[in-house]
C-alpha cells in the first residue's frame, strides 16, 4: 500500500476532481478512436492500465494495430515515448544503457553513463517475446522500482513510467515465453482480437485514402499523474473489496475448491489483488463513475488474472484453459 492510500479522503473533493476529469477522459478516448478503429475494449483496458499506474501486455497476431495503439496513446497522453524492437540478438545494455570510458583533454579517464531507450515516460516494448529471457528480464527492476542499477549505481526513470509491451502468440516461430516474475509485473494482459466487419470496412477507407487521421495531444504528463492520484483516492465499497479477495484467493491451488485446485498449477499472488483494486477504480473513473462496482470486477477479472496463473498438464489435456477457470471463479465469487 502506498502512502497516498492512507491519506484522509475528502468525498466532495473527489467528486469535484472526478467531474473535472470526466470531460478530459472522454476527449482522450475520442482522440484515440479517431486513429484506432473497432478496438473499444482494447483501448479501454489500455487506458485503464495507464490510469491505474500500471504496465500492459498486448497479445495478438501481427497486423492488429497493437504498435499503432501504443504510439497513439503516447501522443494523446502527452508522454515522451520511445520504442524498442525486441529481437533475439538484443542485449540488456541495448535497453538500459551502459557506462563508457572517456578521456578528458588533460588525459584523465572517467566513466560516463549513456542512457538507454528505457529512459522514457512511455516505453513501447515491441514483440517483447522475440528476445531471450535474459534480455526480457532487464525490465524487471524498472517495472517494479522505477529505476535501474548500472555498475552498482541507481538511475531514476522519468515520471510517470509505463511499459506497454506487444507480444505475438507463443505458437508462432521465434518466440520465447516471458518469465513468470515479469508477467506478474504487468497489470493486465490485453488480448487483441480481429476487428468486426463494420470496423474493418471503416478501416479500409480511413487508412487507404490520400489523407489519414493523425493522433493529437489531449493530456500532458502532469495531468496524467493527477488523474492517477485521483484513482488512488477513490472510495471502494466493502462489497467490492470482499469480491476481489474472494475471487483472487479462489484461484490459488491451496485455497481453491478441490475440483478447481486439481486443475491449477500456480495462481496469482497479492500483486493481483492490488492490481485489481486499482484497475476497478480506474475503469469506474474512465466511465464517469465515482466508485467501482461488482461489474468492474467481473469485466477486469480475466485481463488481470490470466497471465498470473497456469493450468496443470492434465487440465490442458482435457481442454481446460485459464480463462475457463477464471470465468468459473467469477461466477462463484460475485
UniProtKB/TrEMBL annotation:
One of its GO terms (molecular function) is ATP binding. InterPro entries: ATPase_AAA-3, CbbQ/NirQ/NorQ/GpvN, ChlI/MoxR_AAA_lid, P-loop_NTPase. It holds the Pfam family AAA_3. Residues 262-325 form the ChlI/MoxR AAA lid domain. Residues 55-188 form the ATPase AAA-3 domain. PANTHER family: MAGNESIUM-CHELATASE SUBUNIT CHLD, MOXR FAMILY PROTEIN. This is MoxR family ATPase. The lineage of its organism: Bacteria, Pseudomonadati, Pseudomonadota, Alphaproteobacteria, Hyphomicrobiales.
